[in-house]
Each structure stands twice: as structure tokens, then as C-alpha cells.
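Supplementary material to the annual report.
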Amino acid sequence: MEAVKEKTDLKTQEYFVNMGPQHPSTHGVLRLMLGLDGEIITSIQPHIGYVHRSIEKMCEFDNYRQIVHLTDRMDYLSSHTSNEAVSMLIENALEIEVSDRVKVIRTIFDELSRISSHQLWWASVGMDLGALTAFLYGFRDREMINDIFEETCGARLTMNYNVPGGLMFDIHPNFQKRVKEFITHFKTKLPEYDQLLSDNVIFRMRTEGIGVISKEDAISFGLSGPTARASGVALDLRKSHPYMAYDRVDFESIVMDSGDTYARYKVRILEMWESMKIIEQLIDNIPEGDIQAPTKALIKLPKGEFYQRVETARGDFGVYVVSEGGKSPYRLKFRSPSFSNLFSLTQMAVGGKIADLVAMMATLDIVVPDIDR
Amino acid sequence: MLAFSIYDFSTLTKSIHESLLSTFSPGWTMTIEWTIIGLILILFAAIAVLILVYVERKVAAFFQLRLGPNRVGPYGIFQTVADFIKLLMKEHITSKNADKFLFNLAPFIIVTAALLGIGAIPFALGLHVFDINIGLFYLTAVSSVGVLGILIGGWAGNNKYSLIGALRSGAQIVSYELSITLSLLVIVVLVGSLQLSDIIASQENGWWIFKGHISAWIAFVIFMIAGTAETNRGPFDLAEAESELTAGFHTEYSGIKFAMFFLAEYLSLFIITSIGAIVFFGGWMPFHIGSWEAFNNIMDYIPPIVWFFSKVSALIGLIMWFKWTFPRLRIDQLLNLEWKYLLPINLFNLILVSFIVLMGWYF
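Predicted assembly:
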């Protein structure tokens, strides 16, 4: 009798698991402190700061030309777009008009880096959900874009192609040909992505209805980019505040309503099609013109506050500069999309399972150096 | 003089037995024979695993647009040997506060369980270590002992990831054991015997997959799903789930102890596919069609051992194909699949096949 009583008194206990800083699916040095009841997540606390390099503080000691290159190291998958944000801020502050050629080339590069970022994201979604083959398919196609970047600006990841006033150098003579080759290639390969993951029964079971973020929550968490658009928030800076050549191209901003993991997945897949559409419209119509507007060697911004936003592959990337009129900013702040997107996890993941958390993290598409800066 | 025929190994074993008897007493003969058999089985297991690991890596590379191992030896065939030597020489790390005895015991349990199964597999006519009357039951029984090793190993390592992996594995293997057994029972009902030699002999005029109507097909599909789950392979590799649990139940193991988990995984893959080949595809029995004498004679030219290993290879290829294509299931979906779909279908299938047998609607 005593033994039976003891058995019925058995209690379950919550326990804590540190997921990260070294963990295969946190995509970098991010630590998630999970409270677990068996497999079910009861609390989640992201701990960041493992790759903090105080880039914002460094910017206060660098001149404006150098700041452009520091932004490479934040969101390394859309380094071109981050460079562009700082360059555009300086151009707007100094009222420099960049040529049409620069605008079009920058837009093509933006969209190419969006595709390449989404390809890497797709590859890692597959890997996180256990479909290891997807990883290499994603990288196969991304390689072509990297080669195109390499040919024009000499770098594959941290490109440093933008400078205040334009571009560092003109495009490579092969550029148009190779971009067109890539588009024809990728149009045949993108349906393969659907065959391998999107239409897979297990994949659909793992993602549909998981990690739902409502429209209201998406707005209050400050989500942006594909993550927000999957929740029905039609926030796309390319549409609402067109910059560079986005006002002259015809494309659709993909918005979905369900806000679950599958919607976030699907938005990015469809965005790759839209990006290809944009590139196709521009690639044959690159106007002639200067690739750099004349600027002074040492740029000094007028006294005041400046803000510039661009749409990176992850969302709304903002640069805020307070200038005292000197050669470097008095204070500089980056608004990084991954930071806001990450913290929506604290709401999404609770009540789900560990495996769900991995799927949610994968479709949030966070880049840890962008969170920590 | 040793009599040897590739078509019937019993002549070889008989002549070895007789030549030993002529030199030694019956007791010594038996001791020597069992020692030889034991050595051959262990050697076979080691070589089979080395080959399987190599094949898996090449298959994975083929699916993933890579070349796979291609540096050590021609086409990289010695890569797994080199890896094995590396694992042998690595440091044994035991995590702090681990239960040392159980931690060291777990790899042995899991390897022993896998090795036990190999003895009961008929590789060819006459190449069968022990043909007991409950052969199929024995195979399913020993293949489920391995889960003990996983549970012990996961618990003893004092790592939360290992513990979660072990608990997942426990739930998974206990559930899918039911499906495996029930799907095999379908064929047992058709044959009327659990003895492996009987099951193979019953397929002389056609394999059960062709003779067993729709029931055998359903049973085969369920067997493949449950077999993949039983061997902890993708898409059912929840116990390892590297993107969730880093390495699951063997997170804390290093060196040769890790290699033993690896060995057991591939051995159980071999055993499960062997069971599938024996029960559904006639084991070493050549492909025969009813009363087509000429065709059957041509098929008989291919040695039974080739038939057996090609069937096993085909099934292994199928399971590897699953692994390198599908994403992983979640634990609740995995258990739903078993208890809500496979088990009811299985029970219905068993009733169906019993009815077929009762009415004599099979040939």
C-alpha cells in the first residue's frame, strides 16, 4: 500500500535547457533558455550578445565612408542592401543625385542578394526540419549568384560595392549575360524547391498552423519583411517608400494572412519569383551614366538628424544618424529587422514542442550578427 | 577434400563438419565450429557495416549533388576504414556526474542486440547458423532489445538532450514494434509457420509480395515504414534529431563507444531489411513464376546468395532514399501515425488475410 501511494505521488518537474550558444539550429551564437515540461515549451528567453562587436559605437569614430563598410558585417546575407542604406542616407543628407545607372544596378543587386539570402534560408529550413538534401540544393543555386557578385565587385559575401554617391566600379561586361543565365536556370530550379519541401506531406504537417502570429501581434512586435507580410501586414518599403528603381518596375508584394510557419515559408518562396520578375525588367534596360556622383574625399554631414530605411531580405533595415556637422556621426543607431523578429519567438513558441521551435526559428530567418551588431 | 557449391552451402558445411569429426571428438568439433561461426559473424558484421556506411555516404552524395568520399583509396572505398581507425584512437570522454557503469554498458547492449539477430538470418541455401522453429519471433524479439541500450545510454550520460532523445526513442520503438510484428504476422498467417526456412520454402513458386494479394502489399508498406522507424533512421530519426537535440541519445559518447552506436544502427538496418527480404521477397529464393519451367531454370542459374544480397540492397536503397528526401516528423505526429493509422490498418489487414486463408483464396 505504501509503495502504491508513493507511486501516485510521483511528480513531474519543469526543467531548463540552454539551446545554444553552440547549437546546430540557432544559426549562430544565440542562446535560448527554454523551460520545458517534457517536450512542451513553457517559457523561452532569448539571450543575445555573444557576437556583439559594438559596431554602432565604432561608427562614432569612423568617417562616413568607413561606416558603409562596417554594415557588411551585420546582416551578412544582405550586405549590399545594408551598404546601400548608409550610402543613401549620406546621399540624401548631402542632396547628391545619383545617376539612373546607379539606381538600376543597385536595384538589381538588391534583388539578387534577396534571392541569394532566401536561397540560403530555404537551404537551412530544410536542414532544420531534417531534410538535409535541401541544404545542398539551395547552395547549388546560390553559388551562381555569388559568382556573379564576385565577377563584378570581387567579393562574394561582404561586397562593399556601394559608396556614397554611387558604386565603387562599373559592372563587369559579363554581368548582364550571367544574370540572364541565372534567371533561366533558377526558373527551372525553383519548382524543384516546391517538389522537395513545399508540397511534402511531412513538411506541411510540421509547418501548417505552427507558430501563428496574428496581424495585431505582428504590428506590436514590430515585425517586418516576409515575417510581417505572412501575418497580413502589407509592409514593404519597396512599395510604400520606393527608393532606387523600385518605382519603375512592376512587381507584387506578397502578403499572406494565416501568419503561421508555412505562410512565412511560402511568402519567401513567392518573393523569389517576384525578385526574378524585377531583375528581368531591369537587366536589359540599364541606362548609361556615371557610376559615381562627385563627392568630397572627406564627407561631412550637415548638422541634424537623418533616417534612412531599406527593405532587406529580412525586413525593414533603418539607419539613424545624429550629426553635429563633423566627419563622423555624433550618434548612430541601426534598426535591424532580425532583432524585432527574434523576440516574437517568446510568444510563438510557448506551448509548442522543441521541434516546433526549430521550425519557427527557421522561418523567422534571423541572422545573429544582425541582432547583436 | 572440401565439397563446395555456390548453389547449396550445406555440402560445404557438411564436409567441414565431417572432416573435423574425423580428427576431433564430437565435443571439440562443436566448440571449434561455434568459434568459427562466431568469428565469421562478427567479421561479417564489421565488414557489412563498413560497406553500408560507405554506401550511405555515396548514396547521400548522389542525392545531394556531391561526390562523397573520394580521397582514401580508389573512389574513397577505404574512407570508412580510416574513419574507424580514427574513432578507435580517440579519447574516451565520460561526462561529469555520469553513471559510469551504465554509461559504459549501453554501447555493449545495443551492439549485442544487433549481433544476436545476424545469427538467425538465412543468407543462402544451407548458409544459416540456426534455423529455430520460432525464427521470425526471435528476430523481432532481439531487434527490440536495442532500445534498452538507447534508454540506458541516454539516461546515463547526464545530458538533457540525451535524455529527451532516449525518451523519444523509447516511445517510438515500443510503438513501432507493434506494427512490425503485426505486418509480419500477415505473412505468418499465409505460411502457417514462424520458421524462416519454411517461410522461404513456401515462396518457391512466387514471392509473397506477388502471391499475397493486397494484404501482402499493405503489410509490406507498413513494414517499410515501421522498419525505418525501428532503426531510428530519417524521417523517423527523432532520437538523434541533430537540429533539435544536437545528437540525441549519443551526444555524450566519443571514440569507439560512439562507433558502437553507429555499428548497431547499421546492423539493425541490415537485419530489418533482411527480414523484409525474407518475408516478402523470398529471401535467397530466386524469382519464380508459377509453372514457367524454362524461366524458372534460368533464374536458378543466379546463385541464392546473390539473390539474397541484391534484395537486401534494394530495400536498403529504398530506406536510404527515404532518409535523404523527407523532413523529420514531430514526436506527436510520429505516435499519431502509429496508433491512429498504422495499427488499425494492420489489425484490419490481419483479419482480411485470415479470411483469405480461411477461404483458401491464395495459391
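Residues 26-63 of chain B form the longest helix (38 residues).
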